[in-house]
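Teaching assistant here, posting this on the class forum so everyone can see the example we discussed in section. The complex has two components, and the goal was to see what a joint structure prediction looks like when all of them are supplied at once.
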Amino acid sequence: MNVQMEGSQAVAEILACCRPEVIAAYPISPQTHIVERLSAKVARGEIGRCQFVNVESEFAALSVLIGASASGARTYTATSSQGLLFMAEAVYNAAGLGLPIVMTIANRAVGAPINIWNDHSDSMALRDAGWIQLFAEHNQEAIDLHIQAFRLAEALSCPVMVCMDGYVLTHASEPVDLPDAAHVDAYLPPYQPVQLLDPNDPVSIGAMVGPDAFAEVKYLAHHQHLRALDLIPELTQAFEQHFHRQSGGLCSPYRMEGADIAVIAMGSVIGTIKDVVDELRRASIPVGCIKIGCYRPFPMLQLRGLLEGVSRVIVVEKDLAVGVGGIVSADVQRTLSGRQIPVHTVIAGLGGRSISTSSLKQMILEARAERLTEPYFLDLNKTVIEQELARRRDIRRAGPVAEHILRTMNVMGTKVS
Amino acid sequence: MVTAAELLAVAAFSDGKYAQAFPSFGSERMGAPVMAFCRIDDTTIRTRDAVTCPDVVIVQDATLLHQVDLFAGLTLRGFVLINSTRSLNALHLEEFLSALPVGHVCAFPASDLGLKYLKRPLANAPLLGGFAALTGLIRLASVESAIRQRFPGEIGEANVASVREAYDHVTALTAEQQGILRR
């Protein structure tokens, strides 16, 4: 059914069709609308025998799901930012135990300074915890990825995060095609656990593993991720046959035919980049774009294939490894090891700053002219930075950075735009 | 405001157009300034860029007029719709907005219409009716169906009544403006 709907509401609707049996969640913006709607649906009895557990923290939310998943339930939660960090220990545990939990990350910056807006700092902080991480370009893809996520998680017995940009997608009203439950059922079979806490057939899950076997257990987790690289294209193909649209996948090219420059990114900024690519192509600049749809495992082989013939790569990423630069760029550089082509890191959209078509266009032209600094911070206000650096050089007790910068820029911390 | 942008998107959707609505959140308290945006197009909307050059600006709270540059980036043939009991002249906007085409600017008491029909000064629905009348970008019937879909029953009908009066009111006001010009 085609409807115009807020992203979070659409995700909640599709989640109901995926027939979760236990949902445990703790509210945090911008994830809240998803679990609010789900809790209302559970209360109305619209999700079968699903139980919604109100918990006291994100740590508890995921811990409840670890128990529920181990006892054979299809499980779901959603979180953002500090919420994800607060559940970090359980995030590693869910992956280490091989439990196919699906979690939506409504991507949001991580403080301090406190900031509720979108970037990818939260899911990036846990990129190596052993979860598969899928990124949605728009709300249609966000809902489709949730259907695929359960099937993928359960096929591999490995947890999956579906990352969708907070506010930009979660709070955006867009047209989406919502499949009905019967249609989803035909794609997503009931959960068949590979390990189960069952009083009639007792096992223990969560053994202590010493130096003699720890590496082997970890290697097998790595192996599952490598299997995901084969399985994801199969699942997306099956999805396309069943739902008659392309959604998800490891990485997807856009106008890469004859492209000299490839712009690589993840999430909702891909839409803006596609518009920029069209504009530059009209001006005969051979640029294309590649969406990384699956960030963990990282689709090196597929990406390398798509980048053949390209002489310059620009990675636009909504995160920052402080003291290093780009995070996705490092994966792309590793992908291209042995090939002598420039890989530019562009840090953009931190803390919800809008990524404008004009800034992206200008940046691509600058990269082409070899004029980008590395890493390049899109739309960075250098005057403010220089003032603050000078002030801190001159005054020992310079005080808090964030407060001073806000004062210099004469904005409230809560400016409307 | 956020709801108004969403309802506008739903109305545009039922008109067969593509729409994208999104809010810009600030501090989480009642009364804090908030902006919400809506893009309407005949093709799929891909960009997530901020709206910096709007074709239409709806001002729900006229006390913001002299605090924030609400009309920054407004396109040359743009529209402005203001919720106020005061006239454009009394708001000191007549001259400022005179560069826009005649019949593209309108101030009307949307909150009063909310009070009349909903017993609360809710300006959203009347402003959407005003938007349909002022711009012709969405059909009145689509606004009504978007509202009924979101608020079924009595509340929806009261909202629809306020939309209709707002539509007629703004239609009359803009006709008057154009009439003045013709004379």
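For the discussion questions: The longest helix of chain B spans residues 154-182. The interface with chain A takes residues 2, 5-6, 9-10, 12-14, 18-28, 32-35, 45-50, 52, 68 of chain B (CB under 8 Å). Think about how each of these relates to the inputs above.
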